[in-house]
Amino acid sequence: MTDFPATYGSWAVIAGGSDGVGAAFARGLAARGMNIVLVARRAPVLEDCATALEKDYGVRTRTLSLDLSTEEAIGELEHATADLDIGIFVYNAGSDSRTVEFLDRTLDEHRALVHRNCVSVLEAAYRFGGPMVTRGRGALVLVTSGAAWAGGRNLASYGASKAFDLILAEGLWAEWRERGVHVLGLVLGATDTPSLRRTLDIGDRVLADPHDVAEQALEHLADGPTWIHGSENPTGGSPFGALDRRSAVLAMSTPRH
Ligand SMILES: NC(=O)c1ccc[n+]([C@@H]2O[C@H](COP(=O)([O-])OP(=O)(O)OC[C@H]3O[C@@H](n4cnc5c(N)ncnc54)[C@H](OP(=O)(O)O)[C@@H]3O)[C@@H](O)[C@H]2O)c1
């Protein structure tokens, strides 16, 4: 079994680490002996998570209440963790809080989503991935979505932002694979998180378990560039295969119940 602190460094940052998939990553990493920096907006939820990690796994934690859709967030995060040996960075926050048509949300809402899901992801990769490359060890996980495979109705800016994350992860994997840094673009399907339950009427949909998602990803950090959770071929390509783009977009736009 991989010795995570020895392989990567002793601290992991989880951007969006206070519930759902991010909290599952935090527990999985703490169980592997990593100290944890948790980032999210709601301070009390962060504190509860950190307290539980310390109690259950005996690791050290640090929490930062930041809004990742703001210009200064990643710079503040870098400053607040400058004294730590950051070996793993998981950029998890990124779900869409409202699935509505493009013009049914404000321009500011679109800008905030794109900032959190693209600009801050890029900045985190640059500011935290750079030192990993210099040290010759580390891991970067960018959590993306099946919405990245093709455009779709009610998914325009969200899907576009997730395609950005997928392609960014793949490009960084190509650049850093021989520099000792593992990069994984983690593609998720419907997963049972508080965000999803706030957004969608779940009905009888089969949902992935966040614990399974995080465990699988942590066991496959070195198997990038892309890991598709729940796929029979998790390192394979788009499930739309050789479909022409129009058919793929129409398939993505069909409501799934
Ligand atoms: N759940 C699914 O079915 C599903 C499907 C495909 C892909 N994904 C991807 O999986 C990832 C996780 O999704 P999720 O369902 O767990 O929900 P999420 O809302 O993306 O993540 C929840 C975590 O992120 C934090 N967060 C959200 N917005 C933030 C912001 N602006 N600034 C700082 N922290 C923020 C939340 O805490 P606060 O609210 O306190 O800030 C919480 O800790 C996302 O990237 C999403 O695109 C999820």
From TrEMBL:
InterPro entries tied to this protein: NAD(P)-bd_dom_sf, SDR_fam, VLCFA-Steroid_DH
UniProt keyword annotation of Oxidoreductase present: yes
Pfam families noted in UniProt: adh_short
Domain of life the protein comes from: Bacteria
Keywords: Oxidoreductase
Stored PANTHER family: 17 BETA-HYDROXYSTEROID DEHYDROGENASE TYPE 3, RH59310P
Name the record gives this protein: SDR family NAD(P)-dependent oxidoreductase
Species name: Nocardia aurea
